Amino acid sequence: MLAHWKKLLIVFIVAGIVYTGCNTNGILRTEEFFRKKNPDLALTPKVCYMLGSSAHLTFRYKLAIDIIDRNLKDFPYHPAAVTAEYRRAVAYEKLGDYAKAIQLYEDFLLDHPKDNRHGSVQNKVAKLKALHQEEF
Fold this sequence. Notes:
The chain has 136 residues and is an all-alpha fold. 76% of the residues lie in helices and 0% in strands.
């Protein structure tokens, strides 16, 4: 019975995030509510990582980077941290900061050698280095 209520609560929170998170201010307000006003809630890390993912998936890469950086600092051992590290590197790549993207991709390869994205990240690093070698 308790597990059923937890699932309903998570669905309610996700629906609220989607509803209010359709804009940048909504994402920031939701993040502030959980990260600053309710940091001890069990769902706070999960919601904060979902907000970073929401920003990334809606092409707000600068916002995604900011939220992901805070998440990795505040909740470094959360299961979503690995995907967040990858998305942060992608965000820098999308913003055109190829040197930072390559650095983060290489850090990802070193930190998570058994991740299923390992081969594709190696390919990304090689392509970025080849395409943008004049910057290095």
